[in-house]
């Protein structure tokens, strides 16, 4: 058994290009996921609003209960049957964003519910509406508590984004597979891909820990 | 107690149950302008629930509550949200656990209400807040965050925050119960000064000295009912109800 990393060195620029696409698609998906997650998380706070709560809960249940790959294929191969043809990149962002939105919504809901009930009572007793109290008092406190779990979600999403290579998107995984298809050096190239993913997730983890430290030092997180 | 002038707070025949547990039954209360009503009684007697009904943090299932002549709860029905919010601006609330907004400075805690709800300009709201912080003796803490304050300081900021909405009545829910004993006095001082200025107040407390000194009317609650009401001299010196007597004995022998 001999190892030959030459194809990896030769294909390095392509791999780096793929890594950039991976970062782009992950960041865009997380952004979409955050917007969706915020709305869905708030919708799931009040079970007495049956329609909104039911829709939000249905979404979270479906997304968390089915494989991401199936969801991506539904968008990429399913939507064209309705003559909806989205570019692959858009499909990837949409699929990953919808997927991560379900998880972010649980982060949002948990963070909001972790804020002391007295905060809402104090805000309402001043005369604020529920929305005002949410926007001015509850969410600013909850957002700080969302940062660490959102970081974990970001890392999970970087790894999950490898699946979009199956939608013909030229991400890190896809670029690696192209190199394999001409060099037949599967082990070496997959090792290289794994290494690059590890660098991406580790750097993200470090960055997040740094951010959290600064928030703590600033007294924003108790 | 007299009911000649139109009352600031009028509670008529309210009742409330949490499941099978009856917390309030047929409670009535009328608070005249500038009156200080102090509610005492054993824990679990429903005093906090009664107070929280007065700004609809709890909604009674029976009876009616009127604030400054406007219905808050009518026959167990809460008014719509928009009117509720407007009415709550007239009612200041001070909580046992302070509930200051930890992400805002002391100054911002006091200005957030006037700025967001009364659409007051920043300079106007800041001036008002500085005036109120001076009144509660915390001018030097305007830029501090709540986490850096003592319990007594937090509660004084909470009082300033409620006053900033220029309420017609102030509700105090055991405002000194969460404080270290040496910090109780500074909060009671502020409350006494407010009472002297003519603020209408309903106070749930275990501070019998405060009740005796400041209250116009002392109400004693037990098992969800008001069992005795009258001027403090009468309630403390010549209680009519035997349950009042046993409660007062228990409280006073503790001190």
Give me a quick take on this structure:
By secondary structure, chain A is mainly α. Chain A has helices at 6-43, 50-65, 68-78, 88-114, 117-126, 130-160, 172-183, 186-217.
Provide the succession of SSEs of chain B: EEEHEEEHEHHHEHEHEEHH
Largest interface, C-beta within 8 A: A-B, 22 and 28 residues
β-strand amount of chain A? under 5%
Integer average pLDDT of chain B: 94
What's the alpha carbon Rg of chain B, rounded to whole Å?
A: 18 Å
Distance between the termini of chain A: 55 Å
Query: Helix tally of chain B?
Result: 9
pLDDT < 50 stretches of chain A: none
Over all CA atoms, what is the radius of gyration of chain A? 21 Å
Instruction: State the low-pLDDT regions of chain B, or none.
Output: none
Return the string of H and E elements of chain A.
Answer: HHHHHHHH
Overview of the molecule:
The complex is a heterodimer of chains A (222) and B (255). By secondary structure, chain A is an all-alpha fold. Chain A has one domain: Orthogonal Bundle (MetI-like fold). Chain A contains eight helices and no strands. In chain A, helix 4 crosses helix 6. Chain B is 38% helix and 25% strand. Chain B contains nine helices and eleven strands. Chain B has a six-stranded mixed β-sheet with strand order 7-8-9-3-10-11, sandwiched between helices. In chain B, 49% of the residues are buried. The interface between A and B is medium-sized, with 22 and 28 residues. Chain A: Keywords: Amino-acid transport, Cell membrane, Membrane, Transmembrane, Transmembrane helix, Transport. Chain A: InterPro entries: AA_ABC_transptr_permease_3TM, ArtM/GltK/GlnP/TcyL/YhdX-like, MetI-like, MetI-like_sf. Chain A: It comes from Microvirga makkahensis.
């Amino acid at each position: 058994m001999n190892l030959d990393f030459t194809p990896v060195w030769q294909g390095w620029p392509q791999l780096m290009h793929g890594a950039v696409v991976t970062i782009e698609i992950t960041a865009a998906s997380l952004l979409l996921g955050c917007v969706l997650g915020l709305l869905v998380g708030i919708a799931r706070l009040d079970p007495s609003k049956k329609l909104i709560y039911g829709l939000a809960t249905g979404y979270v249940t479906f997304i968390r209960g089915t494989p991401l790959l199936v969801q991506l294929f539904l968008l990429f191969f399913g939507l064209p049957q309705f003559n909806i043809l989205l570019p692959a990149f858009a499909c990837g962002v949409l699929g990953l964003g919808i997927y991560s939105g379900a998880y972010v919504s649980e982060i949002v809901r948990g963070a909001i519910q972790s804020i002391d009930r007295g905060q809402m009572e104090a805000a309402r007793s001043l005369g604020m509406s529920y929305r005002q109290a949410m926007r001015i008092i509850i969410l600013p406190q909850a957002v700080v508590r969302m940062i660490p779990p959102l970081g974990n979600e970001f890392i999970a999403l970087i790894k999950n984004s490898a699946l979009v290579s199956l939608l013909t998107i030229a991400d890190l995984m896809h670029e690696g597979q192209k190199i394999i298809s001409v060099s037949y050096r599967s082990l070496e190239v997959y090792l290289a891909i794994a290494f690059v993913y590890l660098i991406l997730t580790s750097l993200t983890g470090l960055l997040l820990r740094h951010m959290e430290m600064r928030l703590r030092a600033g007294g924003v997180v108790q | 107690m007299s009911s000649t002038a139109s009352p600031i707070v009028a509670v008529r025949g309210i009742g409330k149950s949490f499941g099978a547990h009856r917390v309030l039954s047929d409670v009535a209360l009328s608070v005249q302008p500038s009156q200080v009503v102090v509610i005492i009684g054993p824990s679990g007697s429903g005093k906090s629930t009664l107070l929280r009904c007065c700004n609809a943090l709890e909604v009674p299932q029976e009876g009616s509550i009127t604030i400054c002549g406007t219905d808050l709860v009518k026959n167990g029905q809460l008014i719509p949200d928009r009117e509720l919010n407007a009415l709550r601006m007239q009612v200041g609330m001070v909580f046992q656990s302070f509930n200051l907004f930890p992400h805002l400075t002391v100054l911002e805690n006091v200005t957030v209400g006037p700025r967001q709800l009364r659409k007051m300009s920043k300079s106007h709201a800041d001036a008002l807040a500085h005036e109120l912080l001076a009144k509660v003796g915390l001018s030097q803490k305007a830029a501090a965050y709540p986490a850096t304050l003592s319990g007594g300081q937090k509660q004084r900021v909470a009082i300033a925050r409620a006053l900033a909405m220029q309420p017609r009545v102030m509700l105090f829910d055991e405002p000194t119960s969460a404080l270290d004993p040496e910090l109780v006095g500074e909060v009671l001082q502020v409350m006494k000064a407010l009472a002297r200025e003519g603020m209408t107040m309903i106070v749930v407390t275990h501070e019998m000295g405060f009740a005796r000194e400041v209250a116009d009317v002392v109400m004693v609650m037990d098992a969800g009912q008001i069992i005795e009401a009258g001027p403090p001299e009468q309630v403390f010196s010549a209680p009519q109800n035997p349950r009042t007597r046993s409660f007062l004995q228990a409280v006073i022998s503790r001190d």
